[in-house]
Design a protein that fits this description.
Elements (H helix, E strand, L loop, with lengths): L1 E5 L4 H10 L6 E6 L14 E4 L5 H8 L4 E4 L10 H18 L4 E7 L8 H13 L7 E7 L2 E2 L4 H12 L2 E4 L6 E2 L2 E2 H10 L9 E5 L4 E2 H11 L5 E4 L5 H11 L4 H11 L9 H5 L8 H13 L18 H4 L7 E8 L5 H8 L12 H13 L20 E2 L2 E7 L3 E6 L5 E10 L2 E10 L1 H36 L1
Helix pairs in contact: 1-6, 2-3, 3-4, 5-7, 7-11, 8-9, 13-15
The structure holds NADP nicotinamide-adenine-dinucleotide phosphate.
């Protein structure tokens, strides 16, 4: 069986790929925009094709001899008219599947009805309709899920942050809205089983666990964490205020918070029993179970994918952001590493930021992060997926990892709200640790910003280099 997975660098696609590679009877091909983002799978026998869904020859090439194709893509966050991009992407994909005699498209979209759908959900519904539009030529299995709970999912991180931090919650009316959350592992089980289910024609499969209100979700999550929480819904909490509140308390930025809040205003309830009928062997776990699994993965540094893995958001495609040659200003600091092993120094470099912090001037990074969040950016709250290792596409606070050369180079692209494009590069070369800030200003304000932070660079960057070396020595001594 030949399978194509799109969106394999995203939250769901990465987990599905991880599950399907266990099945030695499958020939798996990934269709990704940047091969570097899937280095983790390089030891496994899979084919990797590069391209995007707006590139027809690349799509045709990737879909040759494929039996089943997963569509796990969306354009939200890319700016401009994401609905139009989503429509084009879906119709390109469907037509390319038809041209290449693919037997089945498997798509995961959102739960909810058109009448009350947010802009984001509406686009997900349209995508499903477009993929299913030619049932005489290709079959589409369209899965629909609401809140997905798992380590690294935006919904889980919001729930987790809210119940951990707030003993008493004054909440908007929407906490009474009904929903059916589902554990990410169950979503992946349905998607994985979808390739062999014996069913004819297009199918819409609603998936979820038991029905509950968002308020119940908060209470039950608190209970699973051993916490007692009090929730008081009030009528005057507008969606905008709720989104600001989420930005203040949780680690998601405004854009994600507001999209989620919009989605929570309408019920997300299962509309048919196709999931039970077609996949009787899958029994979705309870919310408590989903939360416990997520916390286990969080505590054991086993977060396979995260809501900010995809390049879609502000940073756009990673490939575009790798090119530092456009930089107008460059600021470089250098340290000799002496007798230290270069590999040891690099492993300290790979641990910067997130929970590990930014050493002595962590508070300055945090102040800068708080300012960034005020302007709608990620700030430093976003942290890291994994506190020890990094892969291309990972986030470190307000940075995105855009290049890694093992034991040599880490390149970060800034996702701060800046009047500029900015990069931070850490290189180990010839027994030296070299930090370089690259900067491309947007107009006069961008230039003024560069000169205003330049004195700060001296303090913060010099400290960063000294601290990395100190940290390496500490690690080596402890071994
Ligand atoms: N996550 C949830 O909580 C959730 C809940 C309900 C439903 N869903 C549905 O599940 C599906 C997958 O969502 P997700 O959360 O996994 O998304 P995600 O993490 O944002 O990942 C999106 C993926 O799509 C890829 N992509 C975007 N545009 C592309 C294009 N034009 N060509 C090729 N690849 C492209 C991205 O690649 P890059 O890495 O290169 O950016 C990334 O791999 C969506 O349909 C979503 O509506 C998700």
């Amino acid at each position: 069986m030949n399978i194509l997975i799109t969106g394999a660098t995203g939250y769901i696609g990465r987990r599905l790929t991880n599950k399907l590679i266990e099945d030695k009877n499958l020939k798996i091909r990934l269709f990704v925009r940047n091969k570097k983002k899937i280095e983790g799978f390089k030891n496994v026998v899979i084919e990797i094709y590069e391209g995007d869904t707006f590139d027809m020859p690349a799509l045709d090439n990737a879909l040759k001899n494929i039996d089943f194709a997963y569509y796990l893509i969306h354009s939200m966050g890319k700016g401009g008219d994401f609905s139009e991009l989503d429509r084009k992407s879906a119709s390109n994909f469907r037509d390319a599947c038809i041209r290449n005699n693919v037997k089945r498209i498997i798509y995961l979209g959102g739960l909810g009805v058109k009448e009350t759908a947010s802009e984001h959900l509406l686009s997900r519904l349209e995508t499903g309709e477009i993929l299913s539009e030619k049932p005489d030529k290709i079959q589409t299995l369209w899965f629909r899920a609401g809140v997905i709970l798992g380590s690294g999912s935006a919904s889980f991180e919001i729930l987790f942050d809210l119940v951990r931090k707030l003993p008493v919650m004054i909440t908007p009316k929407w906490v009474k809205t009904k929903t059916q959350p589902i554990a990410v592992a169950d979503v992946v089980s349905y998607l994985a089983a979808a390739k062999e289910v014996d069913v004819k024609g297009n199918q819409i499969i609603y998936i979820g666990s038991e029905q509950m209100s968002f308020g119940d979700m908060l209470r039950r999550t608190a209970k699973a964490l051993g916490l007692k929480r009090y929730i008081f819904p009030v009528p005057f909490f507008s969606p905008k205020l709720s989104s600001y509140w989420l930005v203040f308390i949780t680690r998601v930025p405004y854009q994600i918070a507001s999209a989620l809040i919009e989605g929570l205003k309408s019920e997300t309830i299962i509309q048919n029993d196709n999931a039970k009928r077609l996949f009787p062997e899958i029994k979705p776990v309870s919310l408590e179970n989903a939360v416990e699994n997520a916390i286990y993965e969080l505590q054991h540094n086993k977060i396979l994918s995260r809501w900010c893995d995809s390049s879609i958001a502000d940073a756009c495609d990673i490939k575009v952001q790798q090119d530092i040659s456009s930089a107008v200003y460059v600021d470089r600091k250098v340290r000799e590493i002496g007798d230290l092993n270069e590999r040891d120094v690099f492993s300290a470099v790979m641990a910067i930021g997130g929970e590990n912090g930014w050493f002595n001037y962590n508070f300055l990074w945090k102040i800068r992060g708080a300012m960034d969040r005020l302007f709608g950016g990620y700030g430093t709250k976003r942290g890291r997926r994994d506190c020890k290792t990094l892969r291309v596409g990972d986030s470190i606070d307000f940075w995105k990892v855009v290049d890694i050369v093992p034991d040599k180079r880490l390149l970060l692209f800034s996702e701060m709200k800046l009047p500029a494009k900015a990069w931070l590069e850490l290189v180990i070369d010839n027994k030296r640790l070299i930090l370089t800030a690259y900067y491309y200003p947007f107009g006069l304000f961008g230039i003024l910003y560069w000169y205003s932070v330049l004195p700060m660079h001296n303090i913060v960057f010099n400290d960063l280099l000294d601290s990395i070396i100190k940290e390496t020595k500490k690690r080596v001594c402890n071994v």
